[in-house]
Amino acid sequence: MNTEIDSKERTRKDSNINFVLRAITLTIEPGANVTRDTSVTLRCHASISSLGQEPLSREYTLYKGSERIYNKVMSTSEDFLHQLPNARLSDTGKYKCEIRIKDKSKTSENVELTVTGLSKPVLHVNNSMVSEGEEVIATCMAPGERGSFYFYFYEDSKEIHIMQASSNQAEARLSINSVGSHIIHCEYTVVVIPFVFKSEQSDTVKVSVTELSIAVSLDISPQHNIYEGDQIDITCSVINFPQRSYNSILYLSQGDKILKVEKKTTFTHSMIIKAKDSVLFECGLEMGNVKKLTTKRVSVTELFSVPTLTMSPAEVFQRDAITLTCRSENYAPQRLKDEELTYSLKPTLNLQEHGKGVYSVKATFRDINITCVAKARDLMKQSEILAVRPKVRASRPRISVIGRAIIQQPITILCQSDSGSLPINYTLFKGYDALNTISVKESFQQALFTVTINRAEEIKQYTCEADNTKGRMQSESSDRLRAFVTEPLKNPALIVIPTVEQIFEGGHLSLICTVTGTPPVTFKFYQQGNKDPLHTTTSNENHTSYEVPRLSKAHSGKYFCEADNNAHQVVSTELVNIEVRMAMWKKALIGGSCLLALSVLVVVCVLCFKSKRVKVDKATVSVWSKRPPEDDVVDDEESSVVNSEPDVEYTEVVHPQPVDPNRGAVDHHDYGSVEYAELNGEHPEINHYRPEVNSFHDLPVPVD
Questions:
Q1: Which 3-state string (H, E, C) describes 600-615?
Q2: Whole-number Å distance between alpha carbons of 271 and 232
Q3: Considering only the top CATH level, what class is 216-300?
Q4: What distance, in Å, lies between the first and last C-alpha atoms of the chain?
Q5: What is the CATH number of domain 19-116?
Q6: Around Cβ 40, how many Cβ atoms within 10 Å?
Q7: Listed range (70-74, 132-136, 525-529) with the worst mean pLDDT
């Protein structure tokens, strides 16, 4: 089973390999642009390569736009041809051809065909002579055309009917209402999406309409000296009504109002006439497409005129007394007595009448609409509405400063009432002098005044008034203006503590910046050469300080201070030069060092000088001997200071040196160094002894 399926699949694939569908093209003969009645051929040519001689079954499909218009199967290699005999404008469009062989297909590119020219329409009417109201049947044809049509019918060049048709002709029933001769013609259009092509105009047909002898009449009684309130009788009738039956309607109208409608040839209508009503009456007949009518106007005299309602004064405030007057300016004395005419107000309110149609009342706290009603006999006339809008008196204004009040700078003052009807006039005063007046007419407006003061005390001199009574009442005055006044800064000074002569390294420095003006004040301390401040602070006082706790040479330089407050006028001090001097202990140390060095130098010089004068023989030695006790009794005072150690006496012992025979006689001896000891605070004397040459017997004997 599987072997058979594989064999069929292989056979199908082999058959597809036997041909190659290369291309397909569509051409239009004799060309893409032709005129009406030209025979057009659409040629579809396929380029196919195959292995064998066996003909291939080819299926051709022709499209116009997206619509399939023709399909044919061929087994030959000839081109596929489609004829469009006597081409019409409806054949205009884009065409394409598709070929399918087995499971392969290919489509040509679109080719556009354009056909120009439409046939002239032909118009026929069933009757060229008709009576008034009779219909005319008109037929419009588009000879030889195909497609989708719209037909248009015209009466005296005015379009009167339009209809759509799928065939090349249309029939319309035309109603020609006016009497006389009329010219009829037609036109048509062919729709070729997305375009519409219009034909030329048909020949004209003349249609004559004869008038029917039917007429209508309108009679009004009485015809003269009609006053409002009088009754009149109106008769509407048809003259020469035809004998044959017609579906007719007879009507009577007054202006836009239909008074009566009857399916009769005559009727009478009675009514009470009013002057305010339209006095133009119309009687009309509608019979099929026939319309007949006639009109008549009557003159009606007013019995009394529409009353007018006035108010005095024209502008009122809440709780004000107002006078309302209701009056008809004109009335017919020959028909109406004065006492027959009465007046009243709606709503009644708490009115006090002061004569006929004159009333007084107090204005309420709210708006109210009042009308006046005049009555006489069965007539009632109402005046136009009088809108009473009691105004609200401007309340006591409040006066304030917008923004900041700064001396010698523009100050904006606002004067405002919390309530009051617009417009309100606000006046600014300084003391008793009126400076300026501003009228506020819209709710979004404000009364803003601009002033300048030189002293803070001046701000209290300003007041304002609000008035919307146009001087009829006393204006409301505000309290005196109270506002915080900012005085610009001045007189900046920078104080240095201690004085510049007493500034030393390691010491303490205070820079005090002072100004005059209104705090808070922002102070900034600078050292010349640095764009950034050393210290910034805001103070509620007119001074502040900057402390440098431990000075060094780096703090030497020029310093200044800047100050600013809400007036935003920055002031700056003069430069102060600060020189940090050397510390006192450093000076003392340097002086002491110098003195010490000088002292050492002096000592060295003295020792050097003495060493040259005092020379002792190198053989000289120093010995210590014990002092023998004295026989004398020492007093108590001396004995108390002698310690228990034995007394030591300095004894100089000289040792003779061998004589140098080369030197000769010796005048003196070189004693070398002398050693001494200080004992018990006493300094033993040094005895100089000059021995004789080679004489040693006189040398002192060492003491045990």
A1: HHHHHHHHHHHHHHCC
A2: 6
A3: mainly beta
A4: 160
A5: 2.60.40.10
A6: 19
A7: 132-136
